[in-house]
Amino acid sequence: MSMRTFLSHIPPDSVVSRLASPTKIFYPLFFSVIILLVQNIYVNALILVVVSAILFGVVKPGIQTVKMFTIGWILLSMSMILFYLVLSDIPGSVVYQIGPLQISDRAVYLLTVMLLRFLSMFYMSAILLTSINQGDILSTAEWLRFPWAVSFMLALGFRSMIWFIEDMSTTTEALQSRGMDFREGGPIRRLRNYLSMFVPLISLSIRRIPVITYAVESRAFKPSFARAEVKFYNAKLHRIDYAIVVTCLLAGFLILYLKTTNQIILGYPF
Amino acid sequence: MSESKTEGIRVIHLVMFAIAFGLETVASWTASLFSIGIPGVGALWWPNGLQVAFGSWFGMWGVLAVTAGNILGCILAGTPVVFGASLSVWIIFQSLLPAAGFRHFGADPALKTTRDWMILIVLVLVSSAISATFGIAVVTMFGYIPAWFDASWWFAWFVWALGDSLMGILIGGILLRGLTPVVKRAGLYVEGWWS
What we know:
The complex is a heterodimer of chains A (270) and B (195). With 270 residues, chain A is mostly helical. Chain A is built from ten helices and four strands; from the N terminus they run ββααααββαααααα. Chain A has helices at 15-18, 21-37, 41-59, 63-87, 105-131, 134-143, 148-177, 187-218, 239-261, 263-266; strands at 3-4, 9-10, 94-98, 101-104. In chain A, a hairpin with a 4-residue loop joins β1 and β2 (9-10). Chain A starts with a strand and ends with a helix. Chain B is built from seven helices and no strands. Chain B is globular. The interface between A and B is large, with 68 and 57 residues.
């Protein structure tokens, strides 16, 4: 049976399905940190190639997911171009001049590095959210031996997200049935209509707190911050998990070594 | 269960954390989709209303829940993980300061007097300014904004500070005024920081 993740369905024979939950969360987070250490256009481009290969070759998200993250990056790029080339005065040799606006080689280089870095980070987020679901987060919390109460709060929190989305739909329909229109009128009227939705919406969630508490207490639940004795998930690491963790650590050490010994490879050439 | 003055951490505190965490996650997820171009920085950050209300009602449980929810919401909306976490963590001031202010000055979260409203407005303005300063500093350190205190820096700072303040006063005010009696009647109001 395919595994439902935050953004996709993963087939059972996929490499991602065979990974333990902690590994699925660890390696995208690790690479997101490593990317921040690299400030060289060629190394950034190489990292983007590796990340893209993992995304399209291994994780294989749906076209909508890739589109969503790529559009996010394009929107970000537009404001970055504005910030780097128009609103900031970065020194260097002038390569373009449009009226009073001067664009230096350093500004273009820095902008390119940042755009490559952020595209890698966006695709790394796509890898993470396509690979995991709420069960993976809870499983990792248990594997890390988080206290019982913390795991309980996380589990209930994820479930309450679904209730809130359902409450939004219920509240909107209830207000519409009383003649409120969320799509008509000017921006002020629309804002006022949306604001009037908040009190009943949050009220529904707040009233749920005592009900859940009674239900939990009736099952003799005790809020303990001790480590859990009962395990609901089996986050067991296999050979493939160890191979990924060792590869990540070796790549991390190599980049740290190069960063501290040779700035030209990983730093700005200015 | 309904007596809010009972000492110690109880099941109800864990449940209120979970519900606040879930609500804030969905709120910041939707708000992040309408960012100004900087991922995780919205022009009208309406979750700030929830941050103000939950911090004031639930004490540290609310403060921690909205901060964690905000981080997760930004990540779910596609903000790069490390960037989103480093940026969103500064939201903590936007619920911590109102929570501390209401307790320190003995103001009524139901906003019954002009003094209560004035305290809310000042606290939201100050907390949004502090959050914006730290948040935009992180954005600059990540290289998203190329230089400190230039035109692009101040543009991003004003969008964060003003957008969050407006929503914090408007939505936070409506929630506190309308729902504080409900919260108190249900025994959910946390008078101290933890219980």
